[in-house]
C-alpha cells in the first residue's frame, strides 16, 4: 500500500546516497536466439529520497553510458558506438521516478527512463531487502528490482539477420537492479 509508513520498514526519512561499491545495475539480452548476454554499468549515481510514505518517496539516477561492460572488449566497443548507445552523442542514461507503490516488502517503482534522449515510462517490480547498520555506523538499505524494455523503443535498432532466420540481438532487454543506499547524515 502506498500509505505504508517508511518507519514501519526500519528506514528513516530523508536522503539516501547510492552505494556503488555494493550495487549492480545490469541487463540481460537474448543473443542469436540461443543464449543470454549479461552486462552492467560500472559508473552511476543515484539518490533515494524517502518521505513519510512510499508514495511520498522518489529515486533519481544517472548512468554513464561509456561504463557499459559485458566482459567482452569487442562487444563493449560496438555497444558503446553509434549502432547502440552512441556514447559520444548520448553520454548518459537517466531515470527519474514518478510513483512508488506497494508495501514494506514488495513495491513498484514507476518513472521516466531516458536512453539516447528518448524517454519512456517504465515500471520496476522490486523487493526491499532490509536495513542494517554496518560496523562503521553507516545505515544501509538494500533493494532489488527488474523491468523489461523494448530496446527499439529507445532507438536501439541495430541488428543482423541469422542464416537460419531470426535476428542476432533480441528486442527484449531485462534490466536488473541490485542496489544499496547509505543514509546521508
TrEMBL record:
One Pfam family, short name: YceI
Top-level taxon of the source organism: Bacteria
All copies of domain Lipid/polyisoprenoid-binding YceI-like, residue ranges: 15-182
PANTHER family with a match to the protein in the record: PROTEIN YCEI (PTHR34406)
Family: Belongs to the UPF0312 family.
Protein name: Polyisoprenoid-binding protein
UniProt source species: Arthrobacter alpinus
Amino acid at each position: 500500500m502506498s500509505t505504508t509508513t517508511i518507519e514501519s520498514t526500519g528506514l528513516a526519512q530523508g536522503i539516501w546516497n547510492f552505494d556503488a561499491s555494493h550495487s549492480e545495475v545490469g541487463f540481460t539480452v537474448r543473443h542469436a536466439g540461443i543464449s543470454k548476454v549479461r552486462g552492467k554499468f560500472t559508473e552511476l549515481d543515484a539518490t533515494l529520497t524517502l518521505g513519510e510514505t512510499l508514495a511520498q518517496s522518489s529515486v533519481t539516477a544517472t548512468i554513464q553510458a561509456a561504463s557499459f561492460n559485458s566482459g567482452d572488449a569487442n562487444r563493449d566497443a560496438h555497444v558503446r558506438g553509434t549502432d547502440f548507445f552512441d556514447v559520444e552523442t548520448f553520454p548518459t542514461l537517466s531515470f527519474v521516478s514518478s510513483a512508488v507503490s506497494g508495501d514494506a516488502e514488495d513495491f513498484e517503482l514507476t518513472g521516466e527512463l531516458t536512453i539516447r534522449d528518448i524517454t519512456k515510462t517504465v515500471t520496476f517490480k522490486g523487493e526491499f531487502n532490509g536495513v542494517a547498520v554496518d560496523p562503521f555506523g553507516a545505515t544501509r538499505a538494500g533493494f532489488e528490482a527488474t523491468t523489461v524494455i523494448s530496446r527499439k523503443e529507445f532507438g536501439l535498432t541495430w541488428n543482423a539477420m541469422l542464416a537460419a532466420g531470426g535476428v542476432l540481438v533480441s528486442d527484449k532487454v531485462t534490466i536488473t537492479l541490485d542496489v544499496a543506499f547509505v543514509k546521508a547524515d
